[in-house]
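Residues determine shape. We examine one folded chain.
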Amino acid sequence: MLWGFILAYILPGFLGREPWKDHDAVAFGVMHDMAMGLTSWWNPLLLGLPIEHTGWLHHWLGAAFIGLWPEQAQMMAKIPFMGLLLVTLVGTWWSVYHLARLPAAQPVSFAFGGEADPHDYAKTLADAGLLALLACLGLAQLAHETSADAARLAMVAMMLMAASALTRPNINAPIRTTIFWILGLTGLVLSGAPWMALVLSVALLGAAAWARPQTPSSSWGPRVNQDARPWQWAVAASVLVLALAWSFGLFRWPALSFLNSPEDGVAFTRLLVWFSWPAWPLVLWSLWQWRQQWQSGHVLQPLIVIVVMLIAAAMAEQRDRALLLALPALATLAAFALPTLRRSLSALVDWFTLLFFSACALVIWVVWLAMQTGWPAKTANNVDRLAPGFETPFSWILLIPAVLATAAWLALLAWRVGRHTPVLWKSMVLPAAGATMSWLLLMTLWLPLINHGMSQGPQSRAVYAAVTAPERCVLIDGLPNAQTHALRTHTTLALQRNLGKLTPSGCATLLTSPQGHSTLHQRMDLSQWSYLTTVKRLGRTRDDILVYSRNPEASR
């Protein structure tokens, strides 16, 4: 069942969709240029100009896979990110498992025996932690991007998994645990987050040392078990990796955006409530129920990561992307609420989840029906108004998975309300299944519509149609990197960047943005150009593209 959840969550969102948003489009463009040898792997450029540095790891992974099959570049670029999302999910499972094996996290032993087996109990809680992560609403879109955030998420999950293993008194595979720690730490540094790697390594290793069971001979200092070699190896490796990162100048101070007003605080709170739902209520419940054991590893480790990420999100420019890194720790701590969850609260979660996700599925199906048949008419008119010019295709390949997912949801509802042996992860099944089903329905029934609205492909193809010059040579000025990459991805236009009035160019078409148009006369002799048209992007006026054509007299 768990692997079914994982596959149903990972594959939709990667298969069949075009690059979304600016982060997705720019990342794919850089990967493609690296794979084709058009730019350096260390200092990537776009048509001669540098791009914003977001780390190397995600670019390297995508470029390496594109190089294996360049003809299918978009699909190949997504394969390593499927693996990164799998690392995130599996790492969260093992984090919960290791922490649940700690003596303080085990259930109370009965006087005459019969308590849960420690191994089975830890596996059950790990299943619940994985389901809690799948249920988080904020995970879906950002974790399916080919961006640095997906790589950072996997690295944080790997570091949490290794630190959880270091907390246990006896580690079965100390060398493997140390390797995972080094990989996670190094990957986080190469993903453009060295400061995050520094803070997490200090916090997690300090918590692991403090939370380990104390030996009788140790009367002061951190609680270090006699088998402390893996912890010492991890510390030494962290010092080495971070020192190398500092020597190579990777520690660049990030752009900060503090909560400067009550409105910012309200917006951040609203983001936190929906982004981490339903994990955050369980986290609060877990902290209350385990309030006497906050220094134990199963509470301290994930709590430290949550606090670090909340502070980072409060100071980040893009708070949702910073908050994404807290989800594995939130799901880990939420799992430890389930053994103490009351039946009434569990039933409340179930009923809310049942109604919410059933309503979501109904809305998705009704809108799809309206797009295909025109009924209900009001819904079809709303789609036409919000997505003008969109033609709805019909695809059995997209319909069949949606039907199977809906049938599985109905079967799960029947199972949940039936009489069966209660298990700890029962309260997390409906949230995880509902989130997975809704995501799968969106990425099948609504995939063409979402590509039309969120991808830059329709705008790029419209620009291509507007270029009348037979040589298809285009001079660009002031276009954002995302739009430049989209034009290269979705069209065969030959792009040249305008570097000033003296730039030699025989291109007969000029593309610019509304922001760059106000100063265009400073860089171009506009007497040689005539305005042709404006190609709009759905819902984003600032991303419109202005098209100019060279005057015939200027060409001569």
